Amino acid sequence: MRKLIITALLLLSPGILLAAGAGPHLEKADIDLHDQGSLQRGAKYFVNYCMGCHSLQYMRYNRLAKDLDIDEVTLRETLLFGEAKPGDLMENAMRPEDALAWFGVAVPDLTLVTRWRSPDWVYTYLKSFYVDPTRPYGVNNVVFPAVGMPHGLSDLQGIQEPVMGHDAAGAPVVTGVRLVKQGRLSPQEYDAMVRDITAFLTYAGEPIQLERQRLGLYVLLFLGFLFIIAYLMKKEFWKDVH
Ligand code: HEC
């Protein structure tokens, strides 16, 4: 019995730990992986605004083009820059030692970021930069305190100030942000943009997911069909017994 209780507690502990470590509130990313337009836009934004620093080292351009239904001409015009060829991995030219000198940290590869964080976390992160003159790049982030990344989308989003609150012990903490000067996009347009980027990164973390769902549907349809045949056969076989 004791063993049973311990096993049950062990199984439950990740949930308990997660509940206990409730950090800042995460907004729902509300992405739709079946919306190809959203994924295509996300890929374009990523290549233009993020790939200067971040790579997607497990993703090839031509795989992405095939999955997201992007033809070769569009691929070359909108996603391939410099020397990059369709068969290449989506790596960038930044040397790790330069990254360390510029940002004080290694720039993480983002192929799996929505899996080690979550799509909601990435979405909230991209919306949570605020002005902080004490930081090297003048910005900080609510969900990633003392972040080493400059806010690359600030001219689109605008300038945000921190909203202060108190933690459980009564110490002041940043609990949210407030837009004080709008950038080139309206808040709705900015939300849509970071939703597209989050959707694209979620796809990149598990490209097979879309295919699996499609296959799953066929399997279910097949099983449904089999059920009907089996049922009719059963009726036929037992007809004379009853
Ligand atoms: C100028 C370089 C630069 C650009 C451009 C940039 N980033 Fe970053 N990013 C960084 C650095 C450096 C870090 C690591 C921060 C740290 O560890 O303190 C980071 C961290 C992150 C993280 C957190 C990863 C983790 O540790 O879980 C995410 C998510 C992210 N970036 C997404 C993006 C997206 C999306 C874009 C494009 C809109 C982008 N970044 C553009 C430099 C950059």
From TrEMBL:
One Gene Ontology molecular-function label: metal ion binding
- Domain of life of the native organism: Bacteria
Q: Give one Pfam family, short name only.
A: Cytochrom_C1
Chief subcellular site? membrane
The record describes how the cofactor is bound as: Binds 1 heme c group covalently per subunit.
Acetylation: is it a keyword of this entry? Answer: no
Residue sites binding heme c per the record: C50, C53, H54
Kindly indicate whether the keyword Membrane belongs to this entry: yes
Any stretches that span the bilayer, and where are they? 215-233
Q: What UniProt keywords apply to this chain's record, in alphabetical order? A: Heme, Iron, Membrane, Metal-binding, Signal, Transmembrane, Transmembrane helix
* Boundaries of every Cytochrome c domain copy: 37-201
Q: InterPro entries of this UniProt entry? A: Cyt_c-like_dom, Cyt_c-like_dom_sf, Cyt_c1
Instruction: From the UniProt annotation, give the residues forming the signal peptide.
Output: 1-19
Instruction: Please give an example of a GO cellular component term from this record.
Output: membrane
Cofactor requirement: heme c
Compartments it resides in: Membrane
What name has this protein been given in UniProt?
Ubiquinol-cytochrome c reductase cytochrome c1 subunit
